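Re: the request from the purification team.
They wanted to know what the chain is likely to look like in 3D before they choose a buffer screen. I agreed to run a prediction and write the result into the notebook, where they can find it.
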Amino acid sequence: QRQYVQIFRRAGDTLLTQINDILDFSKVEAGQLELEQTVFDPVEVIEGAAAMMAVRAHGKGLELACRLAPEVPPALIGDPTRLRQVLLNLLGNAIKFTERDDVVLRVEMEARGPSSPLPIASDPKTARECVLRFSVCVTGIGIPADKLWAVFDRFTQADSSTTRKYGG
């Protein structure tokens, strides 16, 4: 029960964040949205988003797995709210378009700043850059290669006929 209450609390926090995102929409359209630069725990953000979406996945009879590479740093400087929003959108779409098997979120270290063996984010002066690769693997309907980049356009789907079956 405690775990469910924590999920509900995170869901409430996310709903509040989404409302704020809607209010900030005019800033996005004007190109004036500024990303937050704060120290955060990426594992907490990633696992929190996965936990929230696990309820929806289990409702469809799907397993939602989260695989974080051990080299993912324990602290980053960035915008945890936007990261959470992107992960919720990616996982939500993956669950929506998957009818069987698993949805797997993988997070791996792709690159690390050259001047430090460990990315340290607790002090911006000593922080080093790192690039994380997020991937979502599913057995859903997929996206044809020639339509892959179209899904990054606003209000676009690779195949608009799927709206009838899966929703917007």
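For the purification team: Confidence is low (pLDDT under 50) at residues 116-121.
Please add any questions underneath this entry.
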